[in-house]
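Lab notes, practical 5.
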Amino acid sequence: MKNIRKIVVFWALGILLGQLAYAADTPPPSAGHSTSVPLAPGAPSSYVVQNGDTLWAISSKFLTQPWFWPEIWYLNPDIKNPHLIYPGDTLRLVYDAEGRPQIRLERAAQRGDTVHLSPQVHSSPLDQAITTIPFEIVAAFMSKPSVISAEDEKTLPYIVALGQQRVIGGMGDIFYARGVQGIETGARLNVVHVGDKLKDPESGKALGYQGVYTGTARLEHAAQGTGKTALAKMVLITSARETLAGDRLVRDNLEIPLDFVPHAPSRAVNGQIISVVDGVTVIGQYHVVIVNRGRRQGLEPGHVLAIWQRGDRVMDRGRHGLHSNELTAPFAPSVQLPSEKAGTFMVFRAYNDMSYGLVLNAASELHVGDTIKNP
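Output from the prediction step:
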């Protein structure tokens, strides 16, 4: 992130911990005592956060279902972004009197033979905090989007005209853009062509558009004038394909908040994967996918959903395979095999009726058209 901001958190943490009657080395519940969330087999009693960790990966070390993390993450809910953790911090697994697991945070500066429970001030750059999912994958997608939402299509800056009455632009060409207010001279923006509509397979409504990266431009002169008449002068400094009037402009250093906590939706969700980034046909781990559900259906960043793979439609050849020859096969009735749970993904950006999500695991090959449901 561009600016290093300092935050002061956990004033109330010491007071809160001081009210607890159970020390960090409280033993686990006795055999047969049920817990409220499913702990992973061999869950560690403590874990030191490492560089490159994600909150999802850490959650998976403690839980069989990582979206239950908020149920055991014990911090003062009144603190802004209470889940921010940093490399060097220690997470300890403890239990309350009823055998319910809790994860407690011990800051790197607090570790030692004695854990001080007095109020603490913690100041650390936000860009050093671990993210919920891999930042570099999401940042690459958002800065050079292969999908443009219907909302962004209406609001992103766009090219009004190319210089010297050119119809097609390439590296070194000048163009003029509208909607580039508030961006400093010298800033770089990616140019994205708006392609085919991305329709909801259920309603037929256009939820977004295929986006095609055409190049990178630099702001030469800030927008002159005010309102709709303000035009900014820009130059193409790289070119991947032809640039046209109407192409959209996207900042290449978007600040994407990834400080959310994995959790299940509170409402029932039932939708489909309608697109995948990079035009691949087989979806796997860490692929960005687009689904036909969004804020109107209750989705928000951090929501975890299960991916169900559609079952094949096969011929029912009968109890004794009577339709196994070429003559009778066309008359054999078909049957739809049931869907199977095949993966998990997390929403990182939600629009009105569509969302972007990252596939976190895939037990088998996933495809456009597979169903998403509550985990």
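Observations recorded by the TA: The chain has three domains: 11-128, 143-251, 270-373. The helical segments are 11-18, 55-62, 69-72, 135-143, 150-155.
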